[in-house]
Amino acid sequence: MKSKSGDNMDESGNSGLERIEDGSVVSNIHTSKWRVFTDSGRDYFFQGKLEPAERLFGSAIQEAKEGFGEKDPHVASACNNLAELYRVKKEFDKAEPLYLEAVSILEDFYGPEDVRVGATLHNLGQLYLVQRKLEEARACYERALKLKGRVLGYNHPDYAETMYHLGTVLHMQGKDTDAEALIMDSLKILEEGGQGESMTYIRRLRYLSQIYIRSNRLAEAEKLQRKLLHMMELSKGWNSMEAITAAEALALTLRLSGQLGEALELFEKCLNAQKKLLPEGHIQIGGNFLHIAKTFMLQASQMRRTDKSEALSKLEKAKNYLENSARIAKDVLLKLKNQKIKAQKHEKSSVTLRNYEHAALVILLQSLESLAALEMSKNEIQEPKEENLHIAEDSLLQCVTAYKEFGSGTQLQDSSEVKSEYLSCLKHLSALVAKKETTLNSKASPISLPELKEEISRIEIDLRSQKTG
């Protein structure tokens, strides 16, 4: 019995479902049905057909209890499978008691120190992790780690997997020193086991680089990201989505650390490769347009006092990219809006479409807000023009319209990232409207200042409740 984690797949590309590895001689009609229901349920699960999989896994539990006995490990395996399905469906209240029942059965049958107990505890830890129940997740992972280390050995990949997940929990709890040590140890185990170029290794290395970025250790993050890009170039070639993703991540870090020239060069190299690999108007191309525009804007900010003409030139380049990123994102959102009814018939596809839609809305909001910031920057570099303020206000009003058209009333309205971008637009619009109200002869804004303040307050309350919920 092997512990697996992730969504319906873990970081190694495997499911947390239990395979049938039955050496038992027990055989009757119930055990035969258990086997058929389990195999069929797994097949449906991997096809993304969760409703028939749920029915079959539920039936497998009942047949296991009747065929093997209420407290038999086959029942624990069946409980684990249904729990994994509920975790994927985010029906956490249904998943938890099934995991706990599986742990109890295995402890009673094999003893509390058995590795199979550790495998199920790992899965339970994953359930708590996705719910942000960090103390509960930590307790499960710590116990699973001890069991796996003692039974499997301290260089086993399953031990390294639980070690990595425990590291992610500790990072989320703000214990970065301990988290870093665990993740680095898990990487070392993979390296020593000949998996230093596997996708599991790459994903863990990428996560460690993100920890460094969040803690502002940009030089260390840059070092890891250069290693990742080198690995992708060697294994996949530069003109691959894997290499482009690694290069974009490195470029973002370089931009954060002020290395704007190299960042821009990398973004442009990514864009050229994306245009060869992706269809015109793909949202990833829109996202790269946004990255390039923001880099030009930062360059303009550095030049505003020394070379105003060049700074304004950089802003004009940025504006062109921002207009294109906004256009692409809006086109994508309009197309997806028309596809929603069709997508609902295909559960797996609809999840992909929702992720695509989420990315497009975030890019649209950021592009429109950046266009407003760009016009305000022009006024700070050159003689202020009222026209620039009108363009800035119009861009921010488009932000509000975009959120209401594509976010409000959809699943996207629950995204904290979307709400945060919308809130940022509202605050900038509020400041601009307040400035206009102090200026004589200014045209009244379509949204009043009190309305904006009320909406800002509402979104802030929503975001606070999401953080504490």
Automatic annotation (TrEMBL):
Keyword tRNA-binding: no
Matches recorded under SMART domains: TPR
Residue windows of the TPR repeats: 118-151
Origin: domain of life: Eukaryota
Name of the protein in its database record: Tetratricopeptide repeat
InterPro entries xrefs: TPR_rpt (IPR019734)
One Pfam family it belongs to: TPR_10
Organism of origin: Arabidopsis thaliana x Arabidopsis arenosa
Segments forming a coiled coil: none
Keyword list, A-Z: TPR repeat
